[in-house]
Write a structure and sequence with these properties.
This protein is α+β, with helices and mostly antiparallel strands and 470 residues long. It has 2 domains: 34-118, Purple acid phosphatase-like, N-terminal (Immunoglobulin-like); 126-467, Purple Acid Phosphatase, chain A, domain 2, CATH 3.60.21. It is built from 10 helices and 23 strands. It has a 7-stranded mixed beta sheet. The longest helix is centred in the N-terminal third of the chain and has 19 residues, at 3-21. Bound molecules: fe (ii) ion (FE2). Fe (ii) ion binds next to loops.
């Protein structure tokens, strides 16, 4: 070994020893930034991850009304360890409604970046939501999040495909994904870490709280929870464990993810889980369904949500006092047909019976102002959810942050064959911005001119106004 190498090795050993002893050493201990999520009117989840070689350590957090932490509100300590991949997460309680808070984590004199978050109001005149989904790291840069941060929404609503379990699309690779295919706890964690290195995503999460649900790629393409539970339970558990470690979502019992948020009398948001309790898809979604397949999609009782979640959703939609009712769904609910047959049975088109239960209940109970917010399709869409010829809800679909459009490429054909779809854009990635008030909703579909480099320009593709219905 040369002298310089020996000196470097001794230096590394010395730093590492101090590190183990808990002494202060230089370096970025919070390289994945900070995040907050699931705000209510009096609580919010805060998140980070610390780099450490200790088996277990206590990390402090502080929350204040100002970014210089002079008006301190809360202080606490969270224990983390190798067991939970050094992720940090706590539910800060006892906060005031509609208030901006600043927070940071610290260990042994090392501070995380300062995060900013906001609790939900008890009463609201208006609320702004950025709708996001589908962020394949290899397929593109997350420039959309830079524009989302500039729009300063009250929160980001992410409707799934936060990570993709497989690396890159061969033809549209924007950046390498060294993790490869995630199959176990270590590789799902590595995937979450990789995705969180994107500076635009980090900055948006540092400034704006997140509400998230998963779709399929947080685990495996097009999986159905009830089937995967039997043939690869370990993989499902590994993916769910990593998701709950890395996302600032509130933890409930037994991996339960569906939940709701009430924003005064203006809006109640129902976040659904379309994967965990799903029955297996019929046929292969990429192939055209047979006549036999089509009979099965309408089989009574066939479910994407599972009976318990479906009953919760139907009951909640009926009983809410809020003016607007938003249903966040990983998959598109509108019928999408090509040559008279459903295009993708992995979407709600594969669960015809259950979709009918939901739409009929909205119709029969005269529930007004229902909006479904969906992802998965990788195209922008705006259209009507119809039952017995009557529109009972509106659907807004987002194309996603970076994942390319696959099956639906011909926009003109899609509109011609599906007249309930009022608008679609299959050419751009981006997000949807919603400004909600008691008068109506302004919906802006924002696309990016490219996701192949991080300096993309934002384009307003289309704007809609949904008037309130009385
Ligand atoms: Fe996706």
């Amino acid at each position: 070994m040369s002298l310089s190498l020996r000196v470097a090795a001794i230096g590394l050993f010395f730093s590492f020893s101090l590190y183990l002893l808990g002494e202060k050493v230089e370096g970025n201990f919070f390289p994945y930034g900070v995040a907050s999520g699931d705000p209510t009117s009096n609580s919010v989840i805060i998140w980070s991850r610390i780099e450490s070689a200790l088996p277990s350590l206590n990390v402090n957090y502080e929350m204040a009304l100002d970014p210089s932490f002079k008006q301190m509100i809360k202080k606490g300590t969270v224990n983390t360890s190798l067991e939970r991949d050094y992720t940090l997460k706590t539910d800060v309680q006892g906060l005031e409604p509609a208030t901006i808070y600043y927070y940071r984590w610290s260990w042994n004199g090392h501070y995380s970046p300062t995060g900013r978050t906001k609790t939900l109001p008890l009463q609201a005149k208006s609320i702004r939501i950025a709708l996001a989904s589908c962020q394949h790291y290899g397929a593109g840069f997350y420039t959309a999040y830079r524009y989302i941060a500039q729009d300063n929404p009250d929160f980001i609503l992410h409707v799934g495909d936060w990570i993709y379990e497989f690396p890159v699309y061969a033809t549209t690779c924007a950046r390498p994904d060294p993790v490869g295919i995630a199959v176990d706890l270590n590789s799902y964690r590595a995937k979450h870490r990789l995705y969180r290195t994107d500076p635009d995503l980090q900055e948006a999460l540092r400034n704006i709280p997140l509400m998230a649900i998963w779709d399929d790629h947080e685990v495996q393409n097009d999986y159905a929870g009830t089937a995967l539970y039997f043939y690869n339970r370990e993989r499902m558990r590994a993916a769910y464990t990593a998701y709950f470690e890395y996302l600032p979502v509130r933890e409930q019992k037994e991996w339960k993810l569906y939940r709701s948020f009430k924003i005064g009398n203006l809006l109640e948001l129902f976040l659904t889980d379309g994967r965990q309790y799903r029955e297996e898809d019929i046929g292969h979604p990429a192939t055209h369904p047979s006549l036999e397949d089509l009979l099965q999609v309408s089989a009574p009782g066939r479910s994407m949500l599972g009976a318990e979640q479906r009953n919760w959703l139907l009951h909640s939609l009926k009983s809410t006092q809020s003016l607007w009712k938003f249903v966040a769904s990983g998959d598109m609910m509108m019928e999408i047909k090509r040559d008279g047959k459903p295009l993708n049975l992995d979407q709600w088109d594969g669960f015809e019976w259950e979709r009918k239960q939901i739409l009929s209940s909205i119709q029969q109970n005269k529930i007004k102002n229902v909006v479904v917010l969906s992802g998965d399709s990788h195209i922008f869409s705006f259209g009507k959810l119809i039952i017995d010829g009557e529109q009972v809800a509106t659907e807004i679909g987002t194309a996603g942050i970076s994942s390319p459009a696959g099956k639906i490429a011909d926009k003109e054909e899609l509109l011609k064959q599906n007249p309930h779809v009022i608008f679609t854009d299959t050419d751009h990635r981006g997000y949807v911005l919603l400004d909600i008030s008691s008068e109506g909703i302004d919906v802006c579909f924002y696309g990016l001119n490219t996701v192949l480099n991080p300096e993309a320009q934002r384009i307003l593709l289309k704007k809609f106004h949904i008037p309130v219905s009385s």
